[in-house]
Amino acid sequence: MTPRSALGALHIGALMFGLTGVFGKLAAASPAIIVFGRAAFAVLALAVFARFASNAPWKPLHRRDWRRLVVSGVLLAAHWVTFFIAVKVAGVAVATLGFTAFPAFTVILEGLIFRERIRANEVLLVALVTVGLVLVTPDFNLASEATGGLLWGIVSGLLFSLLSLNNRAGSGRIPAVQAALCQNVVVAVCLLPVAAPGLAQVRAIDWLWIGLLGVFCTGLAHSLFVASLAVIKARTASVVFAMEPVYGITVAWLLFAETPTLRMLMGGALIIVAIVLSGLMGSAAQAKQPAGAS
C-alpha cells in the first residue's frame, strides 16, 4: 500500500464509520437487534480479512487476555446500544455529536486511572468539547427528545472512552484485527439473548442495512484503518478520522432532512477541533516514548 492509497483508505474508512448512524436509522429494528447483527456480520468480515489480507500472525490468548477482551466486548456492546438509542431518539446528527465528546472523557479518565497529569492543552480540549455540547443542546429540557438523545450520545462517548482505555492497558500484545474480532464475538454473545425473540420479525431490507453496517462500517472500516496505519502516521490518521462526524451529519442531512442549526454547526465545529487536537496530542505523546515502550 502506497502513502496515497493508504490516505484514500483512511478517508473511505472514516466515511464508513461516519455512516454508522445512518444505517442504524434506516434499519427499522431495536438497538439490541441492530448491535447483534452488526457484530455478527463484523465477525464474518474481520475473519475474511484476517484470513486473506492480514499479515499479522494471531497470538495465543492467555486468561488475562480473555478477561480484558471480554470487558472490552461488554463495553463495546453498551457503547453501540446507547449510540443507536440516541439515533432512534434524536437523529443521526445529535447522536453523533454527543458521542464525539469522548476525547474529553478520555483526558479526564486517563488522569484518574493512569495517574497522568492533565496538561493545559488538555484542559483546553475539555473546555472546547463542553462549550460545543452546550451549543449543540437545543434546550436543557430533559423531557425533550433532542436533549434525551444527546445525553444517550454522551453516555455512548463515555463508554467508548472506557473501551479505549481498556484497550490501551492491554495494547501491544494482541494484533488489532484479532482483538476486534474477539470483541465482536463477545458483543454478539451478549446481545443474542435480548435480540433473539425479535429476529424472526426483522424485514429483509432491515437485514440489508444491518449487514452493510457490520461488513462495511465495522469490519471493512476497521481493516482499512489498521492496514493504512502501516504506511500513514497516527497524527495524519487522527486528522482524517476527525471527518467521521462530518460525513455522517452530511449524509443524514441529505437523506433525512436533519438540517443542523447554525448553533449546532458551531458546536459541532468546536467538538471536531477537539477531536483533531486529541489525536495530535496522542500521536505526539507516542512519538516522545522511548524505543520499545508499549
Quickly list its features:
Diverse_Substrate_Transporter, 78% helix, transmembrane helix, membrane, disordered C terminus, EmrE-like, cell membrane
TL;DR?
With 294 residues, the chain is mainly alpha-helical. It is built from 13 helices and no strands.
Walkthrough of the structure:
- The chain has one domain.
- With 294 residues, the protein is an all-alpha fold.
- The chain contains 13 helices and no strands.
- α2 packs antiparallel against α10, α3 crosses α4 and α5 runs parallel beside α8.
- It is globular, with a radius of gyration of 18 Å.
- Its main location: membrane.
- This is Membrane protein.
How much helix is in the residues?
A: over 70%
Q: Give the total of domains.
A: 1
Largest sheet composition: none
Low-confidence stretches: 290-294
What structural class do helix, strand and pairing data support?
mainly alpha
Averaging pLDDT over every residue, what do you get? 82
Helical run tally? 13
Number of strands: 0
Series of secondary-structure elements, N-terminal to C-terminal: HHHHHHHHHHHHH
The gyration radius over C-alpha positions equals 18 Å
Oligomer: single chain
Gross morphology is globular
Distance between the termini: 25 Å
Strand percent estimate = under 5%
Describe the protein's topology.
Layout: H1 3-18, H2 20-26, H3 31-52, H4 63-90, H5 92-99, H6 102-113, H7 120-136, H8 145-169, H9 176-195, H10 204-228, H11 234-241, H12 244-256, H13 262-288
